[in-house]
Amino acid sequence: MITKIAVVVFSVALMFYLNRIVMGVLNKFADKNRMSELRLGYVKKAINIGFLLLGFILICFLFGLGYQQVFIFLSSFLAVLGIALVAQWSILSNITAGVIIFFAFPYRIGDRIKVVDKDDDISGRIMEIALFHVLIRREDGSTVTYPNSIILQKAVIKLTGAPKAVGEYKLTQPADHDMTVQQKKDDPQC
Fold first, then answer.
1. Which of 25, 32, 61, 166 is the most buried (most CB within 10 A)?
2. Rounded to 5, what percent of the chain is helix, strand, coil?
3. Contact (Cβ atoms closer than 8 angstroms) between residue 173 and residue 159
């Protein structure tokens, strides 16, 4: 019994260590790509929940529960959760899409975009990229909540980038209207 407890304590410590490594890599990725703190927080929560579930399954196996017993418990729990939430797979697909958007979505908060949709004109500025949805503020001031799983399935056109900070562009020659080297590096169209 003491051996099992020692193995469990070691496994939990290892899970915490791996979680810290993953969070460090995630923080570096977010800093490199200038991701917002709110967006980073959503992805961190999803990864922490994943580590928690993985740790729970690992502890169950270490205490001698069989695969069948653990998966019967998990499937029962997910069935009850699905009935309680009614749209379990939709929610899970939006969470998964939210994590994919964090790593692979080429647009940032503040970018003006247009989602190609034959039924409605979804164009405006991205206000927030959350775990379940993207908030798009239209020109008329209304806000569209667009689910993550659907925005990954639609074509998205980038109209303009996020507004630049004042003083970010410096002209080398005031009379010259050509773009400087720094402007060309910052401008995605060049």
1. 61
2. 55, 15, 30
3. no
Tokens read off for 175: 């009379």
The candidate with the shortest Cα–Cα distance to 157, out of 190, 113, 120, is 113
- Which residue bears the tokens 């469990």? 8
Distances from the Cα of 3 to the Cα of 6, 65, 188, angstroms: 5, 16, 58
Backbone dihedral angles phi then psi of residue 59, each to the nearest 5 degrees = -65, -40
Angle, CA of 101, 107 and 112, to the nearest 5°: 135
β strands within 11-161, DSSP E: 112-115, 122-129, 133-137, 143-147, 156-160
Q: What is the DSSP string of 75-91?
A: HHHHHHHHHHHS-HHHH
Asked whether the CA dihedral 34, 38, 43, 44 is positive or negative, the reply is: positive
SS3 of 62, please?
A: helix
* 164 touches 186 (CB < 8 A): yes
36 vs 168, higher pLDDT: 36
Side-chain half-sphere CA neighbours of 7 within 13 A: 11
Predicted structure pTM score: 0.48
Tell me the pLDDT tens digit for each residue of 151-163.
Answer: 888 888 888 765 5
Residue type, 163: P
Which two three-digit tokens encode residue 167?
């003083």
Cα separations in angstroms, 19 against 11, 15, 51, 77:
12, 6, 7, 24
